[in-house]
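Self-study notes.
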Amino acid sequence: MSIVVRDVREHELDSVLALNNAAGPAILPLDAARLRHFYDTAEYFRVAERDGALAGFLIGVGSHAEHDSSNFRWFRERYPDFFYIDRIVVASRRRGGGVGRAFYADAQSYAELRYPQMACEVFLEGSTDPALLFHGSFGFHEVGQHVMAETGVRAAMLMKPLCSYAWVRETYGDALPDAPWITRPRTAYTAAALARRATGTCA
């Protein structure tokens, strides 16, 4: 069965919260109020379905968002314009099945029309090689490290340039075409369609 990525629905927030808090030490825990804040304010909050069941979620915000993450602030102190992936969670039974790549392809499809680069972090605790390899294979590179004051955890700070952004800005400015995959709310796309949209790293 295909993976479908779509906007989260309000009635799914309890399931998203449970998924987040079962993800382990690589993901910071959330409470219901914090998750509701993301639902109300995050410009990108999408879930993945596989075989009709929730398989994961991704939350992202732009660099001008009012976001209190110390990792987000680290990026904002150094870069003027970016799309920040606050968290991506894939259900344990779905890991290794393409859900993470479907999310990153979808997030890039959204971000590259609006921001010159994407930012995220990987916690450097325990065995981080799979996560670093995943991000490296998707075009991210380390631009520094940061110790989170609230947790004491060190994170590798990663950025990815978005090659299409300059062309989009030169061609359309702020007047993007009125198409379902561009405007919000966005329609659902299968993983295969997202893979066709995703671009590689900049030359």
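Second protein, same conventions, sequence then structure:
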Amino acid sequence: MDIIICPGIHEPELTESFISGCFNLNCDRAALHPRGDRKLAQNPAHNILIFPEQGVLTVSPFKILQFLHNCLKDRLQSPVFFISFSAGVVGAIIAARLWQLLGGTVTAFIAVDGWGVPLWGDFPIHRMSHDYFTHWSSSLLGSGHNNFYAEPAVDHLSLWRSPQTVQGVLTDQSLGLYQNSDRLSASDFVHLLLKRYEEK
């Protein structure tokens, strides 16, 4: 499965931290450069790709779509799993819908702190929020059944910088958690979703 990471408007090092904390992989720094290699890391199950543009281009669905075409070529049916953050959610959700309209397969979409961004699509959508207010107010603009919010609340960037240390609440028990607990880390939440969609 191809995992497409769409960052927000922030330092590239934060995305490196997200990849390291969420997937326990070290990033190839050249892959974060706009003109560098687009492949971040590989493990037996996933091909992790990061949208390399920075600044306002992170919100461009057409740039993200071009990136997908460049990386995946004619592999439209290859399952794509989007993880987007902050302002990057704006372009990523539109790009995911366009990719599907072109015949691509979008397995699922995670919006990490995409506050104020309406989310809709013919694929599963999940929100991760840095506090309960962001979770509650964002869900008014669309969300799936399985979402995550930090408890206790953390600052906006911490959710992207250190997903392995941010503890929070799962809003739906259908994912099935260890020891019947609804508390987990942000990175555990991502792993649960990946496992769920890999099994389908």
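Instructor comment on the second fold: Residues 88-101 form the longest helix (14 residues).
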